[in-house]
Amino acid sequence: MKTKILNRFFMLLMATFVLSCSDDDDNGPDQMEADPMMIELNIVETAQDTESVSILVAALAKADESASNDLITTLSDETTNFTVLAPTNDAFADLLARLDGFDSLDDFNTEQLQNLLATVLTYHVVGGAAVASSALTEGQVITTVQGEDLTVSLSGGVYFMDAAGETAQVTLADVETTNGIIHLIDKILLPQAAIDALSDVLLSSITDLAIATPTLSNLVAALQAADGDLPAVLAGEGPFTVFAPTDDAFATFLSDNGFASLSDVPVDILTQVLLNHVISGAIYSTDLTAGYISTLSTAGVGGNNLSMLVDLSDGVTLNGNSSVSAADAKALNGVVHIVDAVIGLPNIVDHAVANSDLSELVGALTADGNTTFTTLLSDTETDFTVFAPVNAAFTAFMNPNTNDLNTILSNHVIAGAAAFSSGLTNSYVTTAATNADGDNISMYINTDDGVTINGVSTVAAADIVATNGVIHAVDAVIDLPTVVTFAVADPNFSTLVSALTELTPATDFAGILSRAEGGNTDGINPDFTVFAPTNAAFEALAEIPGEDVLTQVLLHHVVAGANVRSTDLTADGDTMATTLEGDSMTITLPGTGDHKADVTDGAGNSDIGIIAVDVQANNGVIHVLNKVMLPDTMN
């Protein structure tokens, strides 16, 4: 790399000065004042006495290390006059940022580089005359000592245009010396000779890089047509990583979407599609990792940034359909990777299809030509949250309860809301799955340690953002829950679980309440309506009774053979139900205070409240109590 650059030109050298002399940058150009004392000094002495051009002085000295150059002696000659355009330290710093491959002035240690430096420096010198700013005219062409021309512009100030068409503004004019005049400028001017030599070294902005690449003309046109002045954005500070589609990629995109030309693409969509190719930060191919990254497109649900899947299994593939064909085109403000396909705005189905680790899920969703799920999850009018089992989860799932697979899949979908991990709390949500009665099944989310679903499935990759929702990849299939599933998963019921298991070993409460089929010989058949006391409810008891009494107490909290939801209760009045223990309980609407409903137990206690309703399982429903119900001990 270094040898190649050495054979090119000086530009890199200039850059180095900035780093080596950066401590001098604190002093502005106004230090070089045209007072009478200054006129006692020649051009070189004046520059040496001015901190804001100290890097220029260092550059002259570095160029003179070559036996071919003697710039300091020449510019000190009192027998002739010069006009010098003196770049400030900041101008050198700006140039250094554009140069790739050198870090300090010490790297420029050959005559070739030193001669290149002299080429650039002499492009800032006019020999034989001290030209004051007042003598300049609009459009005037000035031939420099280097041999190439500069063009003058006087619109809004005094400017000099170089061979690249870039302009340097005079920030301090007419500093007189004994052998000429100095004008301080804010940018280093480049002759064509230096530009040609530095074609692989001198960095441009992402926008300029795209403009200079013939196969990206459609991208440039699209950037110009989009909202938000994207050419200016991608020429800005950044840094950015841009995955740049070729002209052929754009042609395919237009054809596939029924557009005759770029002008037919709605501007808002075009803007978001382009932003979906841009990542914050400069990410080179060697730094890319497999997984999801966020693009600058805000077409994600709720205005969130869309996710992009990076697949490194065979080169670099993005969202499953766009491959990097040329990587790591370094720009001044980031890096560009050329891609062979336009990256569209993915919905949930697109993301699932693109991710090879969700192939079993996609296969299950589309088995036997089923399009129900793909149609549903492509809906643009509804937001979704999908807990997507990875392939290993499907491999491990044996469907122990022989539940309908489509219903199981629906149990991974929340319709009507996009729930991001940052907004999740310990709570129940409603899935798209339904029980035999058509009631939507609940899901319990626990965030005490990561995100766990129904106590059995953990989120492994969160917040994959699509246009119509969000995906969370999970490590286990979420089977249809029983009422036992929720009791075990919810830490608020840990005492109830203990009572149902270790404190009552003679009764298989867990087995009974996990039943999904009727026709049991003991007559205890689902559905079950369970009134579940919280831990606090058990703590309010003077003591937890022994097994025989506790068994009856627990049976008094279960109604078998019915899925009694809050909507099934008498709206303004009493609803009576017989429990497995044998006594009846009474539910009264409306409840008092914070109670959803009031409950009178078999013992006649009427200060019991239902504080949460309709936790719906596949084999029944749970309502949460703030006190433990007691049966009638006298019957």
From TrEMBL:
Alphabetically ordered keywords of this record: Signal
Provenance organism: Maribacter aquimaris
Listed name of the protein: Fasciclin domain-containing protein
N-terminal signal peptide: 1-20
PROSITE patterns: FAS1, PROKAR_LIPOPROTEIN
Family matches, as Pfam families: Fasciclin (PF02469)
Highest taxon in the source lineage: Bacteria
Segments forming domain FAS1: 40-189, 203-343, 345-478, 480-629
